[in-house]
Specification:
- With 321 residues, this protein is an alpha/beta fold.
- It has 2 domains: 122 residues, Nucleotidyltransferase, domain 5 (2-Layer Sandwich); 176 residues, Nucleotidyltransferase, domain 5.
- 37% of the residues lie in helices and 20% in strands.
- Helix 3 crosses helix 9, helix 6 packs across helix 7 and helix 7 crosses helix 8.
- The longest helix is centred in the C-terminal third of the chain and has 25 residues.
- The two termini are 16 Å apart.
- The model has no long low-confidence stretch (mean pLDDT 94).
Length: 321
């Protein structure tokens, strides 16, 4: 059993998920913790080490671990650094792979969190056997992993595929983390959905909505989703608008790389047809005829917590002995 297991870590803007995975993609044990509870990365790593040490002991000790794979916002595959991640409290450049190697005593490798999710879909999920596809992660932020000709696209510096930061409404809503106006992430993330609800509540005073029963600070994407599922007209408008913005953006992405499929992954996908119907409609409406009705638009087949853990752990199998 020596070195037949890998650790996969998914660092998100809200939660960090981790697990120990075998070569067949079975997650033997896993856990989670809050990401931004610690202002300093060292304190974060101390807590992570405490959780993972328990799991590693359960599978026979560190000698059975081949390595650690990590998916993280603005994770650079080439350097092993998290660089200027807008959704994390740790600012600047964080040499996370080196810090993990020092903490655990095994090799560590890092990539963007959405790239890790794409690897998970490629090996175990909705994109099995596909050579050209895009994974869009819809969570605290909007991430993307692009696979072309069977390979993840990293670009010359490791940061290719930051589709969530593409401008979809020039001069539009401010992204407080990046300073950009009108990026896809400012509209199609959980935070974006909440901000759209705020704007609609102010702009549509005559539209009845159960969201008006909440204090502003208590409205979040979960509350909006629950209201929409009960037929709340304003909440449903929020999803229609969000789907329109996302669908138009996906049309641009399709015309750039001509993928076989786009896999949507993350919390926003729980809305099902509330989000999928307008996304599909506005994507197809904005495609050239040569692209129309060719691209599969699907939800991830993996549990939300599994895809990025599996993809991150897969990085460890690519390490040279």
């Amino acid at each position: 059993m020596s070195q037949q297991l890998a650790v996969g870590i998914d660092i998100g803007g809200t939660n960090t998920k981790f697990g120990i995975v075998d070569r067949r993609g079975n997650i033997l044990c896993d856990g989670r913790m809050l990401t931004n509870q610690h202002e300093e990365v060292d304190a974060f790593l101390d807590e992570l080490h405490g959780h993972l040490s328990v799991l590693i002991a359960q599978v026979g000790g560190i000698e059975n671990i081949r390595g650690i794979g990590v998916g993280a916002p603005n994770g650079n595959f080439y350097t092993g650094n998290i660089e200027y991640a807008p959704n994390l409290r740790w600012k600047g450049v964080v040499p996370l792979a080196k810090l993990l190697e020092a903490k655990f005593g095994v090799p560590a490798i890092l990539t963007n969190d959405a790239n890790a999710a794409a690897l998970g879909e490629f090996m175990y999920g909705a994109a099995r056997s596909m050579r050209d596809f895009i994974v869009i992660t819809l969570g605290t932020g909007v991430g993307s992993g692009i696979v072309a000709n069977g390979q993840l696209i990293y670009g010359h510096d490791g940061f290719a595929g930051e589709l969530g930061h593409c401008i979809v409404i020039p001069g539009g809503r401010l992204h407080t983390g990046t300073g950009a106006h009108g990026s896809l992430e400012a509209y199609a993330s959980a935070t974006g959905v909440t901000n759209t609800a705020y704007e609609f509540l102010d702009a549509r005073p005559d539209t009845k909505s159960t969201l008006r029963d909440y204090a502003k600070e208590d409205i979040n994407s979960k509350v909006i989703y629950e209201a929409a599922m009960k037929g709340d007209p304003l909440a449903m408008e929020v999803y229609e608008f969000t789907g329109k913005i996302l669908g138009e953006a996906l049309a641009n992405f399709v015309m750039f790389s001509s993928p076989e499929a786009i896999v949507l992954f993350g919390g926003l996908t729980k809305a099902g047809d509330l989000i999928m119907k307008p996304v599909r409609e506005h994507m197809e409406k904005n495609l050239l005829p040569i692209f129309q009705n060719k691209v599969k638009l699907v939800f991830s087949e993996l549990q939300e917590s599994d895809a990025a853990i599996l993809g991150a752990s897969a990085l460890a199998w690519e390490m040279k002995d």
